[in-house]
């Protein structure tokens, strides 16, 4: 198991408690995914000094100037990654990960990772954290989340860090044959942060979908349903 303890100020038992009480109880059983969460110091990516908050199951907000992202709860992120079936040969696009926590975990599972953010401040902060942790297979790109990173693709896996109402077409086009896209989908009229974790599979020119589990996440503005005006 990889261990970032030399740069971590948090006792590893906090991470183990998170894994045992949140991930394992939410049907996360993949050993590689569990090891990646145990090895990644979440406190490096969240400003709060309250360790109980950092490793809680609550949604955490990270900021960069006026920009903000709400990180997925660890158990939802872990189960999405488990269902993504990432291996050492996978090329992964991590969309809207804010400070880079999800991309850091994916870097321990995949061959290469592109961390895409719309805010340059988030990209710079994430790049600094990746360098501090010695993660050499992940790089940051700044640009439109909805438009993806076509110059870096195609990708075997795309993870969208938040809820989506529409606007996935550009990302679907960047999936390699057999590629998977995972996100939290919110149906029309579905209120609050409640949604459904969905896995999309690219089969030839088509994309199929299947429900994974119920999940809570705010809608990423870039994937919000456009307001329609009726005349």
Describe this structure in words.
There is one protein chain. This protein is of the alpha/beta class. The protein has a single domain (58-223), classed as Vaccinia Virus protein VP39 (Rossmann fold, 3-Layer(aba) Sandwich). Helix content is 26%, strand content 29%. Strands 5-4-3-6-7-8-9 form a seven-stranded mixed beta sheet. A two-stranded antiparallel sheet has the order 1-2. Strand 4, helix 6 (120-132) and strand 5 form a beta-alpha-beta unit. Helix 1 crosses helix 4 (74-84). The longest helix has 13 residues, at 120-132. It starts with 11 loop residues before the first helix and ends in a 15-residue tail after the last strand. Mean pLDDT is 91; it is low at 1-10.
Order of helices and strands: HHHEEHEHEHEEHEEE
CATH architecture classification name: 3-Layer(aba) Sandwich
Inertia-based shape = globular
Strand order of the largest sheet: 5-4-3-6-7-8-9
For CATH, the homologous superfamily is named as Vaccinia Virus protein VP39
Helical region count? Answer: 7
By CATH reckoning, the class would read Alpha Beta
The main pleated sheet reads as: 7 strands, mixed
Averaged pLDDT, please? Answer: 91
**Strand content range:** 25-35%
What structural class results from the helix and strand content? alpha/beta
């Amino acid at each position: 198991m990889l261990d970032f303890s030399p740069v971590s100020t948090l006792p590893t038992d906090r991470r183990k408690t998170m894994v045992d009480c949140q991930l394992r109880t939410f049907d996360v059983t993949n050993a590689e995914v569990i090891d990646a969460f145990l090895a990644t110091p979440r406190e490096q990516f969240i400003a709060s000094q309250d360790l109980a908050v950092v490793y809680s199951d609550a949604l955490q907000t990270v900021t960069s100037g006026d920009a903000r992202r709400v990180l997925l709860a660890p158990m939802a992120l872990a189960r999405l990654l488990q269902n993504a079936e990432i291996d050492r040969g996978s090329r992964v696009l991590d969309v809207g990960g804010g400070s880079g926590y999800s991309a850091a975990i994916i870097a321990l599972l995949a061959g290469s990772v592109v961390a895409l953010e719309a805010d340059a401040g988030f990209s710079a902060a994430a790049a600094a954290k990746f360098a501090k942790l010695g993660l050499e297979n992940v790089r940051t790109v700044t640009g439109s989340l909805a438009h993806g990173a076509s110059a870096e693709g195609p990708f075997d896996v795309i993870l969208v860090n938040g809820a989506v109402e529409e606007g996935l077409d550009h990302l679907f086009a960047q999936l390699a044959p057999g590629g998977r896209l995972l996100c939290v989908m919110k149906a029309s009229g579905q209120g609050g942060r409640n949604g459904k974790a969905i896995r999309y599979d690219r089969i030839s020119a088509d994309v199929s979908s299947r429900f994974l589990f119920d999940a809570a996440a705010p809608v990423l503005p870039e994937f919000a349903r456009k307001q329609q005006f009726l005349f």
